[in-house]
Amino acid sequence: MELLTATLVRGVGIGSTYALIAVGFVIIYRATDVVNFAQPALMILGAYFTWFFVRGLGMPFVAGVLLAMIVMAAFAGLTERVALRPMVGEPPFAAAMVTVGVFFALLILSFRLIGTNVISMGDPWGVERIDFLGTRVAQVDLAMTVLSLTAIGLVGLFLTRSKVGLAMRATALDQETALAQGVNVGRMFGLSWAISGATAALAGMLIAARAGAVTPLDAFVALKALPVIILGGLDSIKGSVYAGILIGVAESLTRTYQPALAPGLGSNFDVIVPYLIMIVALMVRPYGFYGTPEVQRV
Amino acid sequence: MLTIENLEVVYEDVILVLKGVSLSVPEGSIVALLGANGAGKTTVLRAITGLLDIHRGEITKGTITLDGKPIHDLDATKTVAAGIGQVMEGRRIFTEFTVEENLRIGAHTAARGKVESGLDRVYELFPRLKERRKQIAGYLSGGEQQMCAIGRALMAEPRYLLLDEPSLGLAPLIVQQIRDLVVDINKQGTTVLLVEQNANMALSIATHGYIMETGKVVMDKPAAVLREDEDVKEFYLGLREEGAGSFRDVKHYKRRKRWLS
Lengths: 298, 261
Prior knowledge:
The complex is a heterodimer.
Chain A (H helix, E strand, L loop, with lengths): L1 H31 L6 H18 L4 H24 L7 H23 L14 E4 L2 E4 H23 L1 H11 L1 H6 L4 H27 L13 H8 L4 H25 L11 H12 L14
Antiparallel strand pairs in A: 1-2
Chain B lengths: L1 E10 L3 E11 L4 E6 L5 H9 L7 E10 L2 E2 L5 H6 L2 E4 L11 H8 L7 H12 L1 H5 L10 H13 L5 E5 L7 H16 L3 E6 L2 H7 L2 E6 L2 E7 H6 L1 H6 L16 H5 L5
Parallel strand pairs in B: 3-8, 3-9, 6-7, 7-8
Antiparallel strand pairs in B: 1-2, 1-4, 4-5, 9-10
């Protein structure tokens, strides 16, 4: 029982973080119809900046995280302005290819920045375990859940309640009509990237804090957001949350029980579980739980 | 006064759509712009509101001025701020938003404090929208959607309102309602440029009318004169002197040569 609870808590924690990364994809996709493959690199850079501010400059942890989010928001907004804005009006596929290029450029940048350093978040929550529902669980799992879901909730509130959020949603629905209402559509594109950059920075910090140390190649962890957005629907934040948690829990359960129950599948089988779920989702319901049926393929 | 002079618009660098259109909309009036499909009416509106470039169109000649100031090189955001509101063809409301969200987005350029008073004004004009303000706009009837689109444009408190075929796809009774609303809006001090296929409806409320054909203004007269014009009666109001003649007489291309005004 204790094992099960710990497994579930871990799954929800990592799943919430997958959801947070997925929300970054969804926001850009909704605003610009482009799947942003550079998101994983933004995440690694976010982790780097958090490390730089907290460990390098010795700032308080919370301040360092917030500053890293702001820096990444500005960085992502600038990336949109320089690399993606000229692609407005071109097919989304072409723009998605540009983001692949941006991904590799940023990956090389993060290799340069990180170099031989060990990017570790230190011990923001400690390896301590606390009592949760009668079980000892790692604080970091609870922190991942709470911070990720809070960030997603804030993004959701911003989109539904604020004037600018309304303009962003309008841009996502019908760019020409939004333009006719006086919405600066280009600025909304930049803003969607900025929000994604900030959420990526937070997610990068959480992934790094969980793993203990992070290298640029951990960017590929963020690719687990792809099964999440496929399962949840490419244009749905709500879907991302449900699908993220579902995939995180599935992965975590596999990790705990598969070695004993099905040793024939080999070790580290849990790594491919999200992708297996994605394949099934693509066969059964290609537009996801909450996605719009005519969503374009990547 | 909104003035267009010798406007030429080219789409995709090769398709000449407007071939020297001139028209003027004096403050306080309702001006009707009539014409068949493809005459270039919507393009005129896009040129005014700065929406040409997303359709790969470009103004190659001519000027558009608002009270003497050129506005043809302003982008859409700035023309809205300059006081020109537009109701696009086919209503184009945000179907996934509630009615109230649709109206609020219309006030995007308005000052923060003006939103509530704008909502009050729109709800007063369209009591139906007030009843349905929490509903998803996509589930409204066509007439209500058109009201929603007009209300959305009014939220920015435009001095000039450009209406692109507000009667499109609506039942005759609803068309009458919309027509009366346009008159009310005009009386409240908004100048209206009404683009229509429904010439009957447009000429019944307009002070002045322009008729466009294949990118040119072919007639430009006070609405009262246009209503009595023989050609307009036959081609746009569906009235004929005698009973139905043979189909030979209906062929438009033979008669088109007669536009000589």
